[in-house]
Specification:
about 325 residues, 14 helices, Luciferase-like_dom, oxidoreductase, two-stranded antiparallel sheet, eight-stranded parallel barrel, TIM Barrel, about 45% helix
């Protein structure tokens, strides 16, 4: 199993220290997100990371088709490839907090897929058409893997058709992962490809704690944010039990995007999942929490289900200590 991990950058002195520890702990990929109202620009952050690391892949998980024209994204991606020596990966989704916080609607499935195709073509030196305009990058394009974050059947099939990889949320159960892979495979087949042509990564909260309940309690706001994102357009085809559908709809109505991905300030969002009775189901699909031995056993079960690439979130009080604990005490037990 390979592990990636990420952070949201708000202070570059802190980020430098974070990068040094993350590199020392052996993570395969280091990521950040794209939400301009909540943290630093991801291209700037990863350019900084490229200068401070040597071997780790660097990924944006994820950007969107609305705040950056595809020609702008392709140019920035090529620049990062040059700076990093080809280590950069660009993830794209329809858009969540980055758009909610500036009053812009998310991209549709078709818009997002077209955006992925366009950026992918431009970084490969090809021509593309975006909203009726012919595009080409006339300065040193650099081939960039473009991934899609996908949850529902339509988006999963689009990712299978058009992306180089897929980022999955709420997929840590065997049933959910198998269902999602089937949709990706359908899309890949439409483009004459197979699952072997795509890189699949799953998002996961891993929280070492005295008990599973204590660990889950630390990431309740993250569970709320994941649910708000995964089910923001529809609950259909995503494995949600019918009894939980009205509860998720209520969560979406009351979710506060100004504190998305900020556990330290998101008490309102954290309280929602408990109040609505969603905590257990959401945690079961996205979170590994509890004593070290239990976390290692759960990760081994997840690997047995076929999941081999995990992006480990760091919504914990002390990210530096978490990275060392995870590498030294959890990952070492999987060897």
């Amino acid at each position: 199993m390979k592990f990636a991990t990420g952070t949201t950058v708000k202070n570059f002195d802190d980020y430098a220290a974070w990068l040094d520890v993350a590199a020392d702990c052996g993570y395969a990929m280091l990521t950040t997100g794209d939400s301009q109202s909540l943290w630093a620009d991801p291209y700037v952050s990863l350019a900084f990371a490229a200068q401070r690391t040597t071997t780790q892949r660097l990924g944006i998980t994820v950007s969107n088709p609305k705040t950056r024209h595809p020609a702008v994204a392709a140019s920035a991606a090529s620049a990062l490839q040059h700076i990093s020596g080809g280590r950069f990966v660009l993830g794209i989704a329809s858009g969540d907090s980055a758009l909610r916080n500036i009053g812009v609607r998310p991209g549709t499935v078709d818009e997002t897929e077209t955006y992925v195709r366009t950026v992918r073509a431009l970084t490969r030196g090809g021509h593309a058409t975006w909203q009726g305009t012919d595009l080409v990058q006339r300065w040193a394009p650099s081939r960039t893997p473009v991934w899609m974050a996908a949850e529902g059947p339509r988006t999963l099939r689009a990712a299978g058709r058009s992306a180089d990889g897929v980022i999955l949320s709420n997929s840590l159960t065997r049933e959910a992962y198998t269902r999602n892979l089937a949709h990706i495979a359908e899309g890949a087949a439409e483009a004459g490809r197979t699952l072997a042509d795509l890189e699949i990564w799953c998002m996961a909260n891993v929280v070492p704690a005295a008990t599973e309940a204590e660990g889950i309690a630390q990431v309740r706001s993250v569970l709320a944010g994941t649910a708000n994102h995964v089910f923001r357009f529809t609950t259909e085809g995503k494995g949600l039990p019918p009894a939980l559908v009205p509860k998720v709809e209520e969560l979406k109505r009351r979710y506060d995007s100004t504190h998305h991905a900020s556990p330290e300030t998101a008490a309102h969002n954290a309280a929602l999942v408990d109040e609505l009775g969603l905590t257990a189901w959401l945690a079961g699909h996205s979170t590994v929490a509890g004593p070290i031995e239990y976390c290692a056993d759960r990760l081994a079960e997840i690997e047995e289900a076929g999941i081999h690439n995990l992006v480990v979130a760091q919504f914990v009080p002390d990210p530096i200590a978490f990275m060392r604990t995870f590498a030294d005490k959890v990952v070492s037990r999987l060897a």
